[in-house]
Structures are given as structure tokens and as C-alpha cells.
Records
---
Amino acid sequence: PAVEYGLDAPFEIEYHNSIPSTNDRARALAAEGAEDDVVLADEQTGGRGRLDRAWSSPTGGVWLSVVCRPALAPSRVSLLTVAASAAACGAVRETGIDARIKWPNDLLVPDPDAARGGRKLAGLLTEMEGEAGKVSWVVLGLGLNANVAPDDLPPDATSLLGERDGDPVDRRVLTQRFLERFDALRTDPDAARDAWREHAATLGQRVRVTLPSETIVGDAVDVTDVGALVVDTGSERRVVHAGDCEHLR
Ligand code: BT5
């Protein structure tokens, strides 16, 4: 069923109490020609992370996927991930929580006691289809641990409920604010990159980025206008478009 959100953005929301994966449902809608549809669920029974990892999605979270048809070259689709992570970070910060963005796709809450200097609050999964150098659709999945008990999440994860000492957030407002911010940033790469930079946990860090074929260690010094990470290894500057990133200090 469609939910009326009174959004100041062009999205139409399809709500599910429980669904295997909002990204899978959004991909099916995209294949039928949908644009700016949002699939939102209270619970996912088969939530996915990147590289076939599982994503825990108990009731109380914000699990959603947006179908986009951007006028972007495939090499620039990562801009949408930059826009979405900046938008999610901004919406979360409005709830009073000091979230930071970890390249390429995580929101963290800093915590010196955590193994990697922070606990994971949210993740993004961007999937696309296209041919002949043209993007047909992009599905942008956001998993945000809103009103989920930290005990129901993997170790090193956190939720807004936990960070706010048990005080739940209004998920409707959170979702609305995310979508409005995302809509404003998705067509404005400069603003998206500025918003990203403002709350980036990764810039200035020593990082290890694992790629399928190699591992790069160095200082994260910048993000490019398509959202790639620039790593200074001491002998050269490498531009990394995707990969798993670990903060080393
Ligand atoms: C991600 O993958 O961070 C992308 C997650 C995207 C989830 C959304 S929910 C709506 C939409 N529908 C879907 O089916 N997916 C998207 P990755 O970077 O691969 O991180 C996955 C890893 O994070 C796992 O291997 C766990 O270690 C950890 N993890 C799993 N569930 C988590 C959670 N709820 N909170 C924090 N960490 C989690």
C-alpha cells in the first residue's frame, strides 16, 4: 500500500510490515519502469549487504530502497552513494547523534572502545543496471538501525535507540528528512561532496583498502567529485572507486 508522507520531494512510498529485501522489491519495480518509488519495510527477513553479506533487519529499523533513473554515466553513479550517505548522516544528526561517514557506505558513531574506532549505525547498498555506457536504473538501499535494541544487532553495531539511551526516534520524520535531503543532494554533486566532507570519518585517517586484486595502505586525503577515495601511500596517490576500507588509527 502507498503511504502518504507529505514529502517535499517527488517520492512515492510503498510500505511493507515484513519483506525479504526492499532492494529486491525495488529492483523488480525498476525493471517495470518505476522512478522515484521508495520501498520501506519495518522488518526484512533476507536483508543484504555488499558482496552477499547478510544485513540484520529486525523490526524497528529504517530499511528502505529508492529507485532512481539518474542522467549519469555509470562511472558517476557513486555520486548517488555520496549524496545518500550525506543525507542519511544529516537526518541522523537531527536526532542529536554525532554520526560520521565512513567511506564508501557506512555511518558510524565514534567510540574509542570499539574495535575500529566506531560502531556501525547504517549501511548503503547501491545496485544498478545499464548497457552501452548508459544507466537504466539505480536502486539505493539504506539500512539504518533506528529503534532497534543493540542486543539484536551484530557486535560493533549500534542503533539510535541505544545511542539515545532507550528514547525512540520518530521513524516517519527520520525517513522524510532523509528523502528530502537526498532529493536535494542527488542533482547537486558539489553540495553532496561538501556535505559528505563535513562529516567524513575517513578523511585524515590511515586506511587499509582491500580490493579484489590488491590491498592499499595509506592516508585518506580526499574524495573525488564522483565519490572515489584518494589514498596517499607515501610514494603515490591512488584513486579508489570501490572496496572495503578499514581505519587503522
Ligand atoms: C552494507 O553492507 O553496509 C549495506 C547494507 C544495506 C542494507 C539495506 S537495508 C534496505 C536495503 N535492502 C537490503 O536488502 N539491503 C539494503 P556491508 O558493507 O557489506 O556490511 C555488511 C556487514 O555489516 C555484515 O557482514 C555485518 O558484519 C554488519 N551488519 C549486518 N547487519 C548490520 C546492522 N543491522 N547494523 C550494523 N552492521 C550490520
Note: The chain has a mean pLDDT of 93.
---
Amino acid sequence: PLATTGDLVARAAAGRVAVPAFNVITLEHVEAVVAGAEAAGAPVVLQVSENAVKFHRGRLLPLARAATAVAEQAAVEVALHLDHVQSDDLLRRAPEAGFSSVMYDAAHLPYADNLAATRAAADWAHAHGLWIEAELGQVGGKDGQPALDAHTPGARTDPDEAREFVAESGVDALAVAVGSSHAMTTRTAALDHDLIARLAAALDVPLVLHGSSGVPDDELTAAVGGGITKVNVGTALNVAMTAAVRDLLADRPDAVDPRGYLGAGREAMTETARRITDLLRAAT
Ligand code: G3H
Ligand code: ZN
């Protein structure tokens, strides 16, 4: 059934586990993530990024409605989250499209501008029943940008600044920069577990890890133990899907029916989603 992100995150926090949030681009991603969560027997967040909306030529509703239909018929709870929103126009389309939550992304702006934009977004979100996540510090690696050097000022999230940012913006969760980076195709990120612990102690809202595809299993488990409550995964699904499609087409150069290669891609994503969902549920 359809659930809300706020409920799933609150329950994960109470159980000292994390809820996985997978980025979905196509219907096959949606079907795979839900099948993987069903196989693991645990709730999941389906998230649609602003970039995925751009891929669908600016349309949010077709994928949102498909995701809603799959969620409603799922054997586990499934929430819909709008991810990495920079456009106020897109933010305002979230409630009618069936999203219970948004991540508002102004982390590329200087601190004061990030705070002002996030506070305005949070006011609007709360007035319209949305749970809202924002980012402080820079995870990096998004839209082809290079990963930031950990020593770049503002790259890592500062706990004192984070406490002020959450109090003054009123957000419900905070995405933190603790050593992960977006769009990694190898699982080689090393997280700053001391910083995660200090952030968890400083804040009374859940912490969100972005760029989790590049984080090895043991690092992810430790991060969840340290207080990460929502784990965002995108690239790992795409790595699995693309490898399966490439293999199938190499084996069968005459194949023309998309159900053959999209089906192989969907199976590969299902297994990835199941594995990560199992890992996060077991992590303490
Ligand atoms: O918001 C989305 C996530 O941060 C996904 O990052 O594609 O590197 O796993 P990833
Ligand atoms: Zn992200």
C-alpha cells in the first residue's frame, strides 16, 4: 500500500534501521524496486528526481501515476518522494502528483541563501502537507560535477551550522555531506563516522545519506548504526540494469523485442534493490 515518507522514516528511526530510497527513472525501475522490497519484506521509498522529470520532457504525472499504481498494489509499504528539487514550480506540483515528501536542494548556494530558500520551501511544503528534506554541505558528483575534496570549505556538513540550519529552516530531515559522492560506479567511498555521530548528536531530525551507491556494505551498516535513517540509492540500480541489457544484447544481437532486454534489466535491478533493502533493515 501507499505510505508516507514521514511515517517510514520515523519508524526506521525508532527501530534504529534505515529506510532505502531508490531513484526511479522508468516504469521498470518502479517495478523492480517494489519487487525487491517485497522480496525483502520491508518498506521502501520510490524517489523521482528533478533530473528524471527533465528526462520525461518536463512531465511529472506519467511516472508519478505509474509509481502510485504500483505502490497501491504492493505487498509492502511504499512512499513517493520528489528528489533534488531546485525548481519552485516543480515543488508546487508535488502534492497533486501524489508525493508525500520532497528533498529541496539549495546546497550549492552560500549558507545564507541556502537557508533562506530552504525556509521558504519548508513553509510552503508544511502548509501543503509535505515532509521536507534539505541539504547542508555538498555531497557533490551531481550532474557530472567532480566529487568535492573533503577539505574544501563547506564540503562536509558542520554540526553546529547544521543545528542552526535545521532550527531556522524547520526541515524534517537533513541530507549531510559525510564522505559519499553522487554517481559513483565503484563502491569505494569512505565515510566519516565520527562526523556522522557528531551530527546525530547535534540534530533532532533524521539524517539522510546521498550518493549511497558508492558506499561499501560495511560502511553503510556502520553509518546506519551511527544514525543515518534514509539511504538514497540511484546509480547502483543503473549499473545493474545497464550491465544486464548490455549482456543480453551481446548474447542475442538479433533481439528486437524490448521486453527481452528491459526484462533482463528489471531483474537485475530487482536483485540490487532486494540486497540493499535487506542490508539496511538488518543494520543496527
Ligand atoms: O538523491 C539521490 C541519491 O543521492 C543517489 O545517489 O546515484 O550516487 O546512488 P547515487
Ligand atoms: Zn542525492
Note: The domain at 2-282 is CATH 3.20.20.70 (TIM Barrel).
